[in-house]
Amino acid sequence: MPDYRLRPEAEFADLIEDMRDFWTWVGTSLPQLPGVEVDVNNLAIVGESAGGTLTAQTALLGMINPIRVILMQYPALDIESHLKWLESLPEDQKVSEAVLDQHLAGSIPGHIFTRVPNGWRMNLAFSMMHNGRFADMAKQPYLDPMKSLESAPKMPPVFLFHGRQDTLVKVEGSETWAKKLRELQPDVPLHFVIRDGEHSLDEDDRLTTPWLQEPIEFVERFWPHRDGDI
């Protein structure tokens, strides 16, 4: 996935609009650049964690078409339930709301971030999510992949992967979303893998890692798309 505006300087809805703008640019402007050769009819879209959530939304909200396959690693696909769980944690397990307020008080109005050192903003993210300040899902239900699935166009084939012991994004969200996809769009190919491990459990895996061979075969059924394929 491309870079996008980060919370808390930007709203969650801004992230979705950044995705729309990016895919509009890919579909219209990128192929026109001199020296650039891009096959916009042969897209595989990949994202992990928050990027996996945005990968889902790219397909669910019909930002570009066709998408041959999407690959999501430990994404948040049931954001409403995810936020409720984080808000319900005991107070001694939460990041104080003051962390967020102090950061915002020292921020330059209009200044945004699209990239930061890995992990640098985790306290800010948890301060928002633990204290009900991440997003108002009731007012903007389309921000939640669980809700946007209800009105989604035909989904591309889906590879979904999650760690069973993930303590940052619970595996139950992926399980519930996959079940709903099967109910609403039963013809969509879905390869869902749950393995023992925490968030980012695949960071040391390679294409030759044995468990990945079946998922790779699944993806190769649909991408790259070849002339004559259905």
From TrEMBL:
<dbReference type="GO" id="GO:0016787">
    <property type="term" value="F:hydrolase activity"/>
</dbReference>
<dbReference type="InterPro" id="IPR013094">
    <property type="entry name" value="AB_hydrolase_3"/>
</dbReference>
<dbReference type="Pfam" id="PF07859">
    <property type="entry name" value="Abhydrolase_3"/>
</dbReference>
<dbReference type="InterPro" id="IPR029058">
    <property type="entry name" value="AB_hydrolase_fold"/>
</dbReference>
<dbReference type="InterPro" id="IPR050300">
    <property type="entry name" value="GDXG_lipolytic_enzyme"/>
</dbReference>
<feature type="domain" description="Alpha/beta hydrolase fold-3">
    <location>
        <begin position="2"/>
        <end position="191"/>
    </location>
</feature>
<keyword id="KW-0378">Hydrolase</keyword>
<protein>
    <recommendedName>
        <fullName>Alpha/beta hydrolase fold-3 domain-containing protein</fullName>
    </recommendedName>
</protein>
